[in-house]
Amino acid sequence: MKTIEKLSTGIFRKKILEMTAYQVAEADGFIKLDAMENPYGWPNDLTDEWLNTLRTCEINRYPDPDARQLNNKLRAMNQIPTELGVLLGNGSDEIIQLLLMALTPHATVMAPDPSFVMYKQISDGLDLNFHAIPLQANNFALDLPCFLKAIEEIKPKVIFLAYPNNPTGNLFNASEIREILNHAPGLVIIDEAYAPFTDATFMTEILHFNNLLVMRTVSKLGLAGLRLGYLVGQNEIINQLNKIRLPYNINVLTQISTLFALSNYAIFKQQTQLICQERTTLTQELKKMPQLEVFPSDANFILFRVLNHSASGLFTFLKEQQVLIKSLANHKTPLTNCLRVTVGKAEENQAFLTALSQYFIVVDHTD
Ligand SMILES: Cc1ncc(COP(=O)(O)O)c(C=O)c1O
Predict the structure, then answer these.
(1) Which residue has the higher pLDDT, 10 or 126?
(2) First and final CA of the chain: distance in angstroms?
(3) Domain residues for 226?
């Protein structure tokens, strides 16, 4: 009998054999500030109303393959004109995958570094040529001359720009993005996953740039469990991608539940405003700590660098206090010794801040 390792060699692509799976931390029992989720639930009456709508749901039947009601709702909410198409995905992760699957073999894909890890992860899995262009180390802004030079040389089929960017939290300069749109020979995807926490958007510019596509998700709004993302762009592009989308990729529970949730948008408006207020408070509190360098954020998380102490040590200490954040401590420059915390409820943020202060008291005392 062949060993398990031998079994996959020669069958799967080399790049896949070399890859490591996307890691999701075990979070049971933790104050969960690692995944940019909305920490708030719904009031009981709204939950009851939602459960009542689910009664109408025929789970013995396949869902509407085009999720037309949901698609129309998203069009109306975002004032998307009929000249543009909307593709729905099982999270924006699936949309990234669909888009990259459609490219010519070994096509080049470009994104800033650091940025959302799935751009590279999915490109690698599909044997595409992924090019990371470093952001400016001091403020995580785009290095425009470097970006334009790389576009000229590499001629990427697709460029991803997360706006605001993950894990840095900043918005890139909009006129620099327009420069990129003007110079890009292929498609430019503006990934607006964190749209609920900023007014900045490229949604209104899609008609001005026919190579621009805007991607959104309902995950950060407060519906991460439903897995729904959408891509808006020229019908010509969306129609091509629809050919390789699996027919029933948006399940019936997601269709009904998202439609219901978006029809009660006021609750999310309230919650996201609260998150933005908490972001301000948390940023101010973190900035009071001399051991940290705190970066400005237009998203629902904050990136900070630990100065003269070990970020890994702090991350482990926080975990021992049942506070889970995201460690970027092992990443290379410009993320050296950085951690990322998602903005939670006031009491969760306070528990995080208390644990953080305790750590510095303990280590500074033992030093
Ligand atoms: C920039 C960015 N895009 C997309 C996603 C994935 O979103 P979804 O939950 O819709 O797959 C994330 C998740 O963290 C993200 O940070």
Answers:
(1) 126
(2) 56
(3) 59-264
Q: Using a 6 Å CB cutoff, which residues line ligand 1?
A: 36, 91-93, 116, 162, 166, 191, 193, 217, 219, 224, 229
Q: Are 39 and 148 within 8 A, CB to CB?
A: no
Q: How far apart are CA 233 and CA 99, in angstroms?
A: 12
Give strand pairing partners of 214. Answer: 190, 232
Are 258 and 271 contained in the same domain?
Answer: no
What is the rounded distance in angstroms from the CA atom of residue 81 to the CA atom of residue 78?
Answer: 9
Does residue 105 surpass a pLDDT of 80?
yes
Interval between CA 131 and ligand 1 midpoint (Å)? 20
Residue 52 lies in a domain: no
Which protein residue's CA is at the shortest distance from atom 7 of ligand 1?
A: 92
pLDDT tens for each residue of 146-194: 999 999 999 999 999 999 999 999 999 999 999 999 999 999 999 999 9
Distances (CA, A) of 103 to 17, 128, 197, 275: 21, 9, 32, 38
CATH of the domain at 152: 3.40.640.10
Q: Please report which helix (H) or strand (E) contains residue 230, including its range.
A: strand 229-234
Q: Residue 72 contacts by C-beta under 8 Å, 6 or more apart in sequence?
A: none
Q: Does the model's pTM come out above 0.85?
A: yes
6 pLDDT more than 80: no
Residue 192 corresponds to which tokens in the numbers above? 């607006």
CA–centroid distance, 365 to ligand 1, in Å, is 40
